[in-house]
Amino acid sequence: MDLSKRVSFWSVEEVSDWIQEHYPARLSVLHAAIVKHAISGRALLRVKEHHLERLGVEAEEQQVILQELLLLRVQEELEDLNDIYSECFSS
Predict the structure, then answer these.
(1) Which of 39, 58, 61, 85 could form a disulfide with 34 if both were Cys (CB 3.0 to 4.6 A apart)?
(2) pLDDT per residue over 57-90, tens digit each?
(3) Whole-model pTM?
């Protein structure tokens, strides 16, 4: 997986790769949902607790996944801010 690529530009396959890397024990359930619902990186950034509940992810594991997703959201926001800064201050 290309880690330099912004999460919001990840394909369904790249999201699946990320799940496989971080949550191999949940891969079968999560992979099926990713493919069925065509969850791209942009959609992954919008996943909330109730989505994980509907997939049958246990409460403790939900919190771990949600923390990882929060880190991805923060990374995306930082990249957005960097883009804005570059646009404003490029000469």
Answers:
(1) 39
(2) 888 889 999 999 999 999 999 999 999 999 998 7
(3) 0.84
